[in-house]
From TrEMBL:
This is Copper resistance protein D domain-containing protein. It is found in: Cell membrane. It comes from Gordonia insulae. InterPro entries: CopC/D (IPR032694), Cu-R_CopD_dom (IPR008457). The lineage of its organism: Bacteria, Bacillati, Actinomycetota, Actinomycetes, Mycobacteriales. Signal peptide: none annotated. It is a multi-pass membrane protein. Residues 209-307 form the Copper resistance protein D domain. GO terms for biological process: copper ion transport. Its main location: membrane.
Amino acid sequence: MSIAGGRAREGDSRLRDVAVPGALLAMFVGLGLCWVLAAPDGPEALAVPSTVAVGATVLLIGLGASPGLGLEPSVRLMGVAGGLWFVAALVSAWLRTADQAGESPTSVTVGQFADTVGAGAPELVALVAAALVVGVVAAQLTGRIDPPATIFAILAGIGLLALSITGHPSQQAMGPVLVGAHALAAAWWCGTLAAMVVTIRGRNGWASALPIFSARALWAVVVIAATGVIAGLIEVGGVANLLDSGYGRILLAKVIGMAALVALGARHRARWVPAVTRHRAPEATSIRLAVAELVVMAVVLGLAVGLSTTAP
């Protein structure tokens, strides 16, 4: 979308250009906090590629859902995200193989890797879905097909579910349902905001998309909060155990981060959204506020990835 009105200055345009890489860096800040909080029993090594994979899938979900806000996502950006996701899933599967074999990553053979992936590692779903994303983008760029953007969101959602509902969440009867709903709602919320930052051009674009996003985000936050609290308390065994384990401390940090994010979102809903709706907020202001919220979201996402790879 490119609509004139309240154009961003050069510095704010650069901020928009670095928003996605900056958000990925913020995710690693959140992951680093997990290692500090859970030391010496922090997240597993595969949390590093998993952070990249989650970041890529979240962006794909947001870009794929953005036509619902009247936006036209970049096909090339979806291709880059798909390629990054494929590489991250490949590295994650290799590290999982090394962990299961009790060997260093440099000692793992291709045969061992194939056995691990073939046995149903969650990375298998991610590898197939990411490869499909890259393939569809390539076909679209050459003019062979013109699929709806939602196909990318669906593929990314499948990969995200495969990663999020395996491991310790699968050990509880309601774990996969709660964690799956939590992950998809969070991915839509964060990914759609990221898609807005990189896609919208002009003050009128924000005036069209932001009110719709804000209304839908309220329901996403309700799902995230409800499923996150229930799933977390089930895993940790109650509020009294929050400080007794690394998992509990990470969960508490995530809850605090989520509370801060909800407070920031409420502030933006009360001030930013009305100003944008009345066309009184310049594009530069919208970019800065959106990027600030996106960075906080990314830190919480990093905490979530670390939490998923830490034993309760």
